[in-house]
Design goal:
Layout: H1 2-15, E1 49-63, E2 67-68, H2 81-84, E3 86-87, E4 93-102, E5 105-111, E6 114-131, H3 133-139, E7 146-153, E8 156-176, E9 179-208, E10 217-228, E11 245-257, E12 279-293, E13 297-302, E14 305-308, H4 309-313, H5 318-325, E15 328-330, E16 335-338, E17 342-352, E18 355-364, E19 379-387, E20 392-394, E21 397-400, E22 406-408, E23 410-413, E24 417-421, H6 424-429, E25 435-447, H7 572-582, H8 599-611, E26 616-622, H9 629-649, E27 657-661, H10 674-680, E28 682-688
Parallel strand pairs: 26-27
Antiparallel strand pairs: 1-4, 1-5, 1-25, 2-3, 4-6, 5-6, 6-8, 7-9, 8-9, 9-10, 9-11, 10-13, 10-14, 11-12, 12-16, 12-17, 13-15, 17-18, 18-19, 19-20, 19-21, 20-23, 21-22, 23-24, 24-25, 26-28
Helix pairs in contact: 1-3, 7-8
Protein name: DUF5723 family protein
Signal peptide: 1-20
Pfam family, one: TSP_3
Length: 689
C-alpha cells in the first residue's frame, strides 16, 4: 500500500543519522592524500606525496536516537523491526542521513612549499529533527485499530543532494626551527541536484480505522512550509538544472611541533618523505556557502482538514497529496539551501616511531531548526593508529549526538586501497546499535622519494642546501663558517660592528665618548654630560649652591664662603654671642664644678658651635686676684677644661676644641671692686684660625 510505503520511508529517514565527519579515522593519516583535503585543506601541504590520484571513494553512515537494533540480525529474513528493535521515543527525536562519494580527484605539489588539489564529489544529506518518535512508531504499525490524536510537534526536515567541484591550495606559511605552520583554502563550485524541505508547526494527526478504505479517515491540524528544488507534482523525475548552483569555501590551519629539529638535524624540515612532528594541531571550518535552486518552489499550508484512506491511496507522490488535500499559498523568493557549515579540530600525537594517537572534534555551526538547513551531528573521537607508507591500521573510538552511544570501529589502508568503519566493532557486539557507517576507496599514490644524504663537509647540511658544501659551517649561515672582517676576535654573527674593531664587552664595537670629556661611555656615569675623570665623568656638584664645589666644600650641605672652604664664617658677632654665654657660666667657689643653673648657657654654646661645624675654638679660663696665684692658675685651667669636656659630651668634636688657663694674668676689669673681680672670673671662647 502506498500509505505503508510512504510511512516506511518516513520511518527510515528517522532511522538515519549522519556522522559529523566523512572517512572518520582515515583522514588524520599522513598518507590519506587527497581525501584529507575534505577535512582540512591545509593538510595537503608538505605531504608525503608528490601526487595522489583518487579513482573512487565513498563514505556513508546511518544511525539514530530512536531505534536500536542488533545490526547483523536486522539483515536476516523474518526480522520484525517493530517487535525486536529497542525503542527510545521522545517528543523531539532527531534524524539525518549523509552520503559522500568522491569521484576522480588528485593532488600534486607545484613547488616545495605549495600544493594544489582538484576533486569531484557527490553529496547527499537528510535531516529530520524534533519529531515525535512515538507517533512515528504508532502510525507505522500494521494492525492499529483506532489511532488516537497524536501530536507530531514541530518537525523540521530537509533533504539535499548536490555535486562539488573543488580546487584546494595549501602552502607552508611559517617555518622556523621546531615550529611549522601551514594553511589552506578550498573554493568549490556547487551544482544542486534535488532538495526537499518541510517545517511543521504544532502538527497533529488523528487516524480513525473503520475497516473500510472509503471510511477510514485522517484528521490533521497545524501548519507547515513545504518546498522543493522543482515542482515534483508536475514532474516526478529529478531534473538537474545548470542554473541551480552556488559556491562554497573551506579554510584550514595546521601547526606542527618538530622537536627533533636541532643543529645536528637542520635538514629535517626539508625531508619530504618522513613525518617530522611530535605533535600536530589542526583547525578548519568547512562548508561555508550555499546554493540556490532556480526552479525551486515553496508553499505554506494550513493543515486543518481531513481525508480518507482511499483518497490518500490515490496519490502518486507526496507533492500531489499536499497540493490537492491542502491549499498551497506560494512563498515568493528563491529556494536557497545552505551547506552544513562545521568547525573541526584535531590533535595528532606521534607516540613512538610509527604509532600515533589522534583526537578530533566536529561541531555544527548552524541551527538544526532553521528552514531548509542541513547540519552535522556533533562528534568527538579518539583514534590510535599504526602508520607507514604502504600500510596503516586504525581503531576510531567516537561519541556522537543523537545516537548517544560510544562507537568503536576499525580500518586499514594498503597503499592503493582503504576500507574502514567507525562503528563495526561496537555493532558486532551490541544488541541495540543506533549507528553504522563505512568508507572505502581506490587510489594511485605517488610518494616522495628519499632524499640523497650527500654532505661532503659533514656539517649536517645536505650539499643541495649548503652554500659552502666543502667547508663546514652552521645552519644559520647556510653551511658556511662565520667570518671576522675587522679581526677583533669576534665573529661577524656576534659582532654589532663587523667592519670596525671593538672589544667583546661592547659586542665588537669601539667604546664611545658622547660628551667628549675624555671618559669612555662604559666608565662614564654621566655619558651625555661632560665631567672630570676623578668624578667618573660627571660634573662636580655644588649641593648647597654656595659656589664652592662639593669636592672642595668642607660644608657641602651648608652655604659658606670660598675663603672658608665652603663653610659659613665665624664673625665677630658670633664670637660675641659665644662669650655672652661663656662669661655667664657659674662655678662652685674655688672649684671647677659647673653649677646647674649654667646649663642653659652651655646649650646655647653647643647650638652655635653646631652651626659652624668646621670652626675650631679655644677655651681660655681666667680668675680674679684673690688668693694664691699658683692655685688661681690651676683653677683657671680646670674650669676651661670642664667647659671643654661638657661641650664634647654634647657632640662637639674634640679636635675642634682646646683649652688653657691664665689665672690672674689677663684681667678685663679692676680687681679692687666686687664688680671688677666678678668680670675677671670668666671662661672666654676664642676662634682658632
Amino acid at each position: 500500500m502506498k500509505k505503508r510505503i510512504f510511512l516506511s520511508l518516513f520511518a527510515f529517514a528517522s532511522f538515519c543519522t549522519a556522522n559529523a565527519q566523512s572517512y572518520l579515522g582515515y583522514t588524520p593519516d599522513n598518507y590519506a592524500g587527497v581525501q584529507s583535503v575534505l577535512y582540512n585543506p591545509a593538510s595537503i601541504a608538505d605531504s608525503r606525496f608528490k601526487a595522489d590520484i583518487n579513482l573512487f571513494s565513498m563514505s556513508s553512515s546511518v544511525g539514530n536516537d530512536m531505534y536500536g537494533v542488533n545490526f547483523f540480525d536486522a539483515f536476516k529474513s523474518g526480522y520484525d523491526f517493530d517487535l525486536e528493535a529497542k525503542k527510545n521515543f521522545s517528543n523531539a527525536n532527531n534524524a539525518v542521513f549523509n552520503s559522500d562519494i568522491m569521484g576522480p580527484s588528485f593532488m600534486f605539489n607545484i613547488a616545495p612549499k605549495h600544493t594544489l588539489a582538484i576533486y569531484t564529489r557527490a553529496r547527499a544529506f537528510v535531516n529530520v529533527v524534533d519529531i515525535n518518535g512515538q507517533v512515528i512508531n504508532d502510525i507505522t504499525k500494521e494492525n492499529s485499530s483506532t489511532f488516537p490524536t497524536a501530536t507530531l510537534g514541530s518537525p523540521n526536515a530537509v533533504g539535499n543532494s548536490w555535486g562539488e567541484l573543488g580546487l584546494s591550495y595549501a602552502a607552508v606559511l611559517f617555518q622556523r626551527g621546531e615550529h611549522f605552520l601551514k594553511g589552506g583554502i578550498t573554493a568549490k563550485y556547487l551544482q544542486g541536484v534535488a532538495n526537499y524541505h518541510f517545517q511543521g508547526n504544532n502538527v497533529s494527526v488523528k487516524y480513525d480505522d473503520f475497516g473500510n478504505p472509503l471510511l477510514d479517515t485522517y484528521t490533521t491540524t497545524g501548519s507547515a512550509i513545504y518546498g522543493s528544488s522543482q515542482d515534483f507534482a508536475t514532474n516526478s523525475d529529478i531534473e538537474i538544472d545548470s542554473k541551480s548552483r552556488g559556491f562554497g569555501v573551506d579554510l584550514g590551519l595546521v601547526y606542527e611541533w618538530r622537536p627533533e629539529y636541532t643543529a645536528d638535524r637542520a635538514d629535517i624540515n626539508d625531508l619530504k618523505e618522513v613525518n617530522k612532528y611530535k605533535l600536530r594541531f589542526g583547525v578548519s571550518v568547512t562548508d561555508l556557502g550555499h546554493m540556490k535552486y532556480d526552479k525551486g518552489v515553496r508553499n505554506s499550508y494550513n493543515l486543518a482538514g481531513s481525508f480518507t484512506h482511499d483518497d490518500f491511496e490515490g496519490y502518486d507522490n507526496f507533492d500531489d497529496f499536499m497540493k490537492n488535500e491542502f491549499t498551497p499559498i506560494p512563498i515568493n523568493g528563491a529556494v536557497r539551501s545552505n551547506l552544513p557549515t562545521a568547525i573541526h579540530a584535531d590533535v595528532d600525537w606521534n607516540i613512538h616511531r610509527k604509532f600515533y594517537l589522534n583526537a578530533n572534534a566536529d561541531f555544527g555551526l548552524v541551527s538544526k531548526t532553521k528552514l531548509n538547513q542541513n547540519t552535522i551531528a556533533n562528534r568527538v573521537s579518539l583514534t590510535p593508529r599504526f602508520e607507514s607508507k604502504w600500510f596503516s591500521f586504525y581503531v576510531p573510538i567516537s561519541y556522537m549526538d543523537y545516537s548517544e552511544q560510544t562507537q568503536v570501529g576499525v580500518g586499514l589502508r594498503t597503499g592503493v586501497f582503504f576500507i574502514g568503519s567507525s562503528s563495526i566493532v561496537s555493532n558486532a557486539i551490541s544488541k541495540s546499535s543506533r549507528a553504522a557507517d563505512i568508507h572505502l576507496g581506490m587510489k594511485i599514490p605517488i610518494y616522495q622519494k628519499k632524499a640523497e644524504d650527500k654532505d661532503q663537509d659533514g656539517d649536517g647540511i645536505l650539499d643541495k642546501d649548503d652554500d659552502c658544501p666543502t667547508v663546514a659551517g652552521p645552519l644559520e649561515n647556510r653551511g658556511c663558517p662565520w667570518g671576522d672582517r675587522d679581526n677583533d676576535g669576534i665573529l661577524d654573527k656576534d659582532d654589532k660592528c663587523p667592519d670596525v674593531a671593538g672589544p667583546a664587552a661592547n659586542n665588537g664595537c669601539p667604546w664611545e665618548d658622547k660628551d667628549n670629556d675624555g671618559v669612555l661611555d662604559k666608565d662614564d656615569k654621566c655619558p651625555t654630560v661632560a665631567g672630570p675623570k676623578e668624578n667618573a665623568g660627571c660634573p662636580w656638584p655644588d649641593t648647597d649652591g654656595d659656589g664652592v664645589l662639593d669636592k672642595d666644600d668642607k660644608c657641602p650641605k651648608v652655604k659658606g664662603t670660598l675663603a672658608n672652604n665652603g663653610c659659613p664664617e665665624v664673625t665677630t658677632e658670633v664670637i660675641k654671642r659665644l662669650n655672652d654665654f661663656s662669661k655667664s657660666i657659674l662655678f662652685d667657689s674655688s672649684k671647677a664644678t659647673i653649677r646647674p643653673e649654667s646649663n642653659d648657657k652651655l646649650e646655647g654654646i653647643v647650638k652655635v658651635m653646631d652651626e659652624y661645624n668646621n670652626a675650631k675654638f679655644k677655651l681660655e679660663g681666667h680668675t680674679d686676684s684673690t688668693g694664691n696665684v699658683a692655685k688661681n692658675l690651676q683653677l683657671s685651667k680646670d674650669r676651661a677644661a670642664a667647659v671643654k669636656d661638657y661641650l664634647i659630651s654634647k657632640g662637639i668634636s674634640a679636635d675642634r676644641l682646646s683649652s688653657e688657663g691664665y689665672g690672674i694674668t689677663k684681667p678685663i676689669a679692676s680687681n679692687k671692686t666686687v664688680e671688677g673681680r666678678a668680670q675677671n672670673r670668666r671662661v672666654e671662647i676664642i676662634l682658632v684660625k
